[in-house]
Design goal:
This is Tetratricopeptide TPR_4. Residues 227-270 are annotated as: Disordered. InterPro entries: TPR-like_helical_dom_sf. By secondary structure, the chain is mainly alpha-helical. Helix content is 71%, strand content 0%. Helix 4 (64-76) runs antiparallel to helix 5, helix 6 runs antiparallel to helix 7 (113-120) and helix 7 runs antiparallel to helix 8 (130-146). The longest helix has 43 residues, at 227-269. It is globular and about 60 Å long.
Length: 270
């Protein structure tokens, strides 16, 4: 796929750039530009991001950062088997554990929640940082819900991170997941409180907590114009154009009459 000429590899993360230094300079630049496109498109146009990730993968499949990017692009397009394979490859190359939660979520995507839960109990989880452990908790709660274990999902989400009043990048999503589980358990009052807390923490709009709150409060958002209003506006515009046409015809006729009057006067003078 063509890459816009203004896109350069300079935008790539420093750690990734370090990994790409093992490649010839020209090849490293090509790979980095494709990775930049993946990062730019993965949220809004995941299919395009996936195509760019495949190009980067063909160019540098032995670079862990490339395998990781390919994994996230496949994950964003719900190609969970492919994503899991790429994440496993990236983990083998890097030796890190940070991909463990998303690997477990791929197992959920493949319809294997039991495997996701088994991964939640592995020693790798203890090596995750705090953000990674919260992600693992979210995945485990989702797996419990997949299995119909709603009460267990609620308990799984109850944690010091949930109770804390501090706001972190993952706070809104954690509170939202807890609210959603409470609502599924028909604990509507508690769910509303937690959707409100999620909204309070959601400075970047990563959840639809405001919509869920409005739904619980019975608030409906109505478009300023419905279809009939649009039709009325179009009819009015057509009527206006018809009036303008009539006015134009009258103006032309007046101009012609004026010209004829002038000619008559000139004829009389002669």
């Amino acid at each position: 796929m063509p890459i816009p000429p203004e896109v350069t590899g300079d935008e790539i993360d420093a750690d990734v750039r370090q990994e790409l230094m093992s490649l010839p300079k020209g090849l490293a630049e090509d790979v980095s530009r494709n990775l930049v496109m993946v990062a730019q498109l993965i949220d809004d146009e995941p299919e395009k991001a996936y195509e760019y990730s495949r190009v980067a993968l063909r160019l540098a499949s032995r670079v862990a950062a490339v395998r990781e990017a390919a994994g996230f692009a496949a994950y964003a397009t719900q190609k969970y088997s492919e994503a899991l394979a790429e994440f496993r490859a990236a983990r083998r190359m890097s030796g890190g554990v940070e991909l463990w939660p998303v690997m477990a979520d791929c197992e959920r995507g493949l319809g294997r929640p039991e495997r996701a839960l088994a991964m939640a109990g592995e020693p790798e989880v203890q090596k995750l940082d705090r953000a990674g452990q919260v992600e693992m908790r979210l995945v485990a709660a989702g797996a419990r819900r997949d299995l119909g274990q709603l009460d267990a999902a609620i308990v799984t989400l109850q944690s010091p991170e949930l109770a804390s009043g501090a706001v972190h990048p993952w706070t809104a999503r954690l509170r939202y997941a807890y609210a959603d589980a409470l609502l599924a358990a028909e604990r509507e009052g508690e769910a509303r409180d937690w959707f409100a807390k999620a909204l309070e923490a959601d400075k970047d709009g990563v959840t639809d907590a405001s919509d869920r709150l409005a739904e619980l409060d019975g608030i409906e958002f109505v478009d300023a114009f419905d279809d009939s209003d649009v039709e009325d506006v179009e009819d009015a515009e057509e009527d206006d154009s018809d009036v303008e046409d009539v006015v134009d015809v009258v103006d032309v006729e007046d101009d012609i009459d004026g010209v004829e009057d002038v000619e008559d006067v000139d004829g009389d003078d002669r």
